[in-house]
Amino acid sequence: MAASKVVVVGSCMTDLVSYTPRLPKPGETIHGHKFSIGFGGKGANQCIAATRLGAATSMVAMVGEDSFGQNYLENFKVNKVDTKYVGITKEAATGVAPIAVDDSGENCIIIVAGANLKMTSSNVLEAEDIIKNSCVVVCQGEITMEATLTALTLARKHKVKTVMNAAPANADLDPEIIKNSDIFCVNESEAEVLTGVEVKSVADAQSAAVKLLSRGCGSVIITLGGEGALYSIQGHHEHISAEKVTPVDTTGAGNAFVGALAYYLAYHPSLPMREMIQRSCRIATVSVQSPGTQSSYPKKESLPMELFA
Ligand code: RIB
User: Fold this and answer.
1) Which of the listed residues 185, 249, 255 should we mutate to test ligand 1's pocket, taking the one with most ligand atoms within 8 A of CB?
2) Does pTM surpass 0.85?
3) Residue 155 gets which letter from DSSP?
4) 1 pLDDT exceeds 70?
5) Half-sphere exposure of 272 toward its Cβ, with a 13 Å CA cutoff?
6) Which residues pair with 13 in a beta bridge?
7) CA dist 200 to 191, 211, 256, Å?
8) Which of 8, 11, 13 is the best mutation target for the ligand 1 pocket, counting ligand atoms within 8 Å of the beta carbon and taking the most?
9) Residue 51 has pLDDT above 90, yes or no
């Protein structure tokens, strides 16, 4: 098997998705009109998004010794993701994510991370052979901070580019995680939790990005939903807009963006960042127009050729 150019060290969840007219209020019971079970978890979603675009990928993760875990391993196999470093633990169940999606495509997610939190720094260190031969290592916030930091520092040791998607938001994020990120990527609400800046406009996003840059990451991307994304490096900010569409289901759109970005960093490294971000926004925009998370991620064959030039 060819060396994986993209390695994702992160989470696997089984998504339990209820489609409802609107999101419930606290204490309220409402009728939903559809239910589906899908493959999720921000890490695995990003890995699958990159794979669908043609990336050779490896996942470093932990599932439980249960049917959800077995199904997940099969899902990776079907999608041709290398699973040499996907462990199985008896100590916890495979992660699950009950999700509600309303008629406007907006969602609410609870994660019960389970087995994801059993992945240790030693498990990550075991994957040094694939990390050192990759181009990009991608992490998120659904496994322990220790394991995430180990992955980022190991990648840095081997001069492999690091992308940290700090989702879900964590106000107590280890500062070393930010320092070891070449690209630190968050959405508006995650940026607010980390910086205290309420992000309601591109100007707000710039203020938040300045604060994040001052903590030592190489660059910052703040995704802005339908408004695209802000890219910031010291002294320079660029707003990249996205096409306006009517979303069906926004779940996992940020993961489609990060997975696509990892693909471009690994396979089209000479593209300007602005172009990589623009193309990644286009892929995320495709994903919000179909239901589900991984089920909505497009394959290379279904996308315009210009995205791969
Ligand atoms: O970002 C979407 C993902 O968040 C879902 O797939 C769910 O599993 C949670 O990890």
Assistant:
1) 255
2) yes
3) H
4) no
5) 6
6) 40, 95
7) 11, 16, 22
8) 13
9) yes
Q: What is the pLDDT of residue 149?
A: 98
Closest atom of ligand 1 to 293 CA is 6
Per residue in 4-42, pLDDT (tens digit) is 899 999 999 999 999 999 999 999 999 999 999 999 999
Query: What is the whole-number distance in angstroms between the Cα of residue 35 and the centre of ligand 1?
Result: 16
Residue 34 identity (one-letter amino acid): K
Which pLDDT tens digit goes with each residue over 79-122? Answer: 999 999 999 999 999 999 999 999 998 899 999 999 999 999 99
Residues 244, 226: contact at Cβ < 8 Å?
yes
Is residue 116 in contact with ligand 1, taking CB distance under 6 Å?
no
Asked if residue 15 has its Cβ within 6 Å of ligand 1, the reply is yes
What's the rounded Cα separation, in Å, for the pair 85 and 131?
11
The finding on whether 13 has its CB within 6 A of some atom of ligand 1 is: yes
How far apart are alpha carbons 182 and 81 in whole angstroms?
24
**pLDDT tens-digit map of 115-142:** 999 999 999 999 999 999 999 999 999 9
